[in-house]
User: What shape does this take?
Amino acid sequence: MAKIKARVVPEGNIGGLYNPLTLILLDADDVKAAGLDYEQAMKVAATYTDGPCGIDIYDRNTITTTSDGLLAECGMVAIGASDQGLVNPKYGWLPMYDEPYTEEIVKEEPNLKAWQMLYPGYRLVKGPSPDYKKLPVHNAVMTGKAGNNNSASEIMNLVTMKEMLFPFLGLRSLFWGDDVRIGHAGPVFSVSIGMMFPERYGRISYFPTCESGNTLHNSGAFAQTLKKDLPCVTCTKKMFAGYIIRHLNCGLVPARDIACAPSILTLACCMGKEIAWERITDRAWVELDSVGFTREYFDSLPRLTEEEILERADELIPGMEDAVTVKAADIVLDVEIEF
Amino acid sequence: MKLMHTKTPDFVQKMHNAAFKGGKTLVMKGMETVRGGKWASIKTGQIEEITGKTAQEEGVASLEMVILNENPEVMKIVLLKARDKDDNVIKIVRFPGVCVFEPLEETYYEGCKNVSTHTTYTLPTEQ
Assistant: This one.
């Protein structure tokens, strides 16, 4: 009987909040070494438990994009959902889209200017492959009660309706064995995740839905309430600050080349970097203002060195309420699944 | 159209009749929000036939029929209607593309592994 290694985040209490799905995180190298293709790996992973699962396969040779437009190592090459040990044949799993490097795509999606500067030689994977995507809108995979949406960043039990947010850097931190922060998303995070970067075949949106100075939520003062009560797992603020700093140092301009999320605007101000203020729409300002990120606040921020920003990341990067820092080792189980 | 499609009340009655002919009762679930509409007759006939046959199988004491939306990303359109003091509609705001995720069929398997598919053709979208 063969075996495949997996990292498992069990359903139930993690960091004091309820995780509604068992998450099974696989390494593409382990999948290959086991002689499995992605679909077979999904079916093998589904046998781990009869309960609802999200299943994600990471490839350490890839990068991917966050909804802010930041690039990050170790993208997902396939996402899945299982229930009762089954993977729904039509909606249960999807491979991700491999975006080839071209000058045209860098022109259309200027955040990709950072690709060759930060990650030369890495493949870029985005959201679900258009050749396989079945659902008209959402980048979701589903089986039974298990919903693994927005390319694994929102997981939900469709019967109990419990949900947990796993922004890419948070879930990847668990896969990598890094510390994570677990708490309620809070109003600033709720606003922030609506400040998206437009891309084709993206992890969150299948087609460009929102200009980088605008808000996809477009909900006025209600934007802060949309996700604020959801439990959420993120990377540490220091790690996130590091990503923002590196992208700003590549010359990416917030509200033009990457999103106008509060954290990005904050660090850009602290670093004295250019911001495309004129591209931030009135609708985006309504949402930013509603959680205290007014133009006056941004103008009042002190100029800091990169080292000072990293030291003060917990204070400078907004978002999350009642959050605790948890070691991945305290949550994640290293298992072997037989097949 | 009567020959091509089956009225919803007729569909429900036909399924109960098919089970009853096999001497069994049928519980139908998932019809709570189905109002009006017509059901493809080709599918109605196939479901009727298999329901009748299954009702007569050895060991079968009762039947349950679960009707689900096959596409779990159910797209709704929301209409916000404003009325004046005389109850006339004076304004409508449309919100198209409102998605509701629904549980998929495996939710209702209850651990049963004896699952078969009955269809006489495969839709291009299923391939």
User: Anything to note?
Assistant: Chain B has a mean pLDDT of 91. The longest strand of chain B covers residues 89-101.
